[in-house]
Amino acid sequence: EAEQVYIKILETRRKMLGSDHPDTIFVQAQLARLYQRQGRDDDAERMFVEALGLTRRVRGDEHRGTLRLMSDLGRLYNKLGRADDAERMYVEALDRVRRVRGDEHTQTLNLINDLGWLYNELGRADEAEVLHLEALGTRRRVLGEDHPQTLWSKYNLAWVRELQGRTEEAERLFRETLEARRRVLGENHEATLWSKYRLALLYSDQGRHDEAERFHRAALAGRRLTLGDDDEETIRSMNSLAWVLLKREPPAARDAEAALPIALEANERTDFQDPGYLDTLALAYHLTDNVEKAIDTQKKAISLVPAANAELREELARRLGEFEKATEDTLR
């Protein structure tokens, strides 16, 4: 419904005011953000790029609208795995907003957070640490210890500590952030659920499977309730919970029967087009003795891996080899 309203307003403003009028560009940017929320990434990128070009020409490189669109594009590129493009957008926007609005402005701190998040995802922990420490210190001073934005910076720093192998400190920071978010935002706020999810991942990496399962189940239940079953974060939680159930140690503790329907739902909701989720489903099939389905599913997962991601392709191919060898051993 919102899309139809935005399209009508955009058409009217283009006709009455022109494509390069600030009010027209504003609606175009809002429509692009809506497309991004809908998962229509190609449409979102097209609209963002066009709106950015228009607002640069009309309002200049340092207008807050220009800088916000650069930030929007950075987030979209990050989501699409175009890390170089995302970093370029973030760095340019951050440099401009620091110069124009200073180090304590909300837009500056948001861009620091976004660039630091990108570095976290790329495993560039030392670069991320510098940014998150700056954002956390500024937000504590300007906004207070329990402000939601301060808590995001604390959460991001916990993630950095995890990447650095400082797991005790990471756990402490994640837990402090979780308790503060529960108190300030509520049990099922999206940010609270992110804290639960990251704690689950940390515990899984440490082999603390019972705690990992408990937090994954809590995050999944909350995301189903607040975001819906088809939201990408809900589906991510489905896959992560299934993976924990399949990878418990010792092997006797694994629960493939419980994992299979969860992994299947995650793939149904992504139209069987995500190689990572297919990998989980293939393992679930393998551990429940659905031999042919395991092999076919893993082959499809490999076929969907982008050519540039050789590391993931090799990992999935190795697991396929294990499935095929197990099948051969059974036949012998």
Descriptive key words:
single chain; 332 residues; mainly alpha; 16 helices
Descriptive overview:
There is one protein chain. This protein has 16 helices and no strands. The chain has helices at 2-17, 22-37, 41-59, 64-79, 83-101, 106-121, 125-143, 148-163, 167-184, 190-205, 209-226, 232-247, 256-268, 275-287, 291-304, 310-331. The chain is globular and about 75 Å long. α2 runs parallel beside α4. It is mostly helical and 332 residues long.
Task: Give me a quick take on this structure.
By secondary structure, this protein is mostly helical. The chain has helices at 2-17, 22-37, 41-59, 64-79, 83-101, 106-121, 125-143, 148-163, 167-184, 190-205, 209-226, 232-247, 256-268, 275-287, 291-304, 310-331.
Question: Low-confidence runs (pLDDT<50, min 5 residues)?
Answer: none
Q: Supply Rg.
A: 22 Å
What is the β-strand count? 0
Q: What's the overall geometry?
A: globular
Helical run tally: 16
Return the string of H and E elements: HHHHHHHHHHHHHHHH
Please give the largest β-sheet: none
What would you call the structural class? Answer: mainly alpha
Strand content: under 5%
Distance between the termini: 60 Å
Helix content bin: over 70%
How would you state the average pLDDT, rounded? 94
Could you give the topology of this structure?
Elements: H1 2-17, H2 22-37, H3 41-59, H4 64-79, H5 83-101, H6 106-121, H7 125-143, H8 148-163, H9 167-184, H10 190-205, H11 209-226, H12 232-247, H13 256-268, H14 275-287, H15 291-304, H16 310-331
Helix pairs in contact: 1-2, 2-3, 2-4, 3-4, 4-5, 4-6, 5-6, 6-7, 6-8, 7-8, 8-9, 8-10, 9-10, 10-11, 11-12, 12-13, 12-14, 13-14, 14-15, 15-16
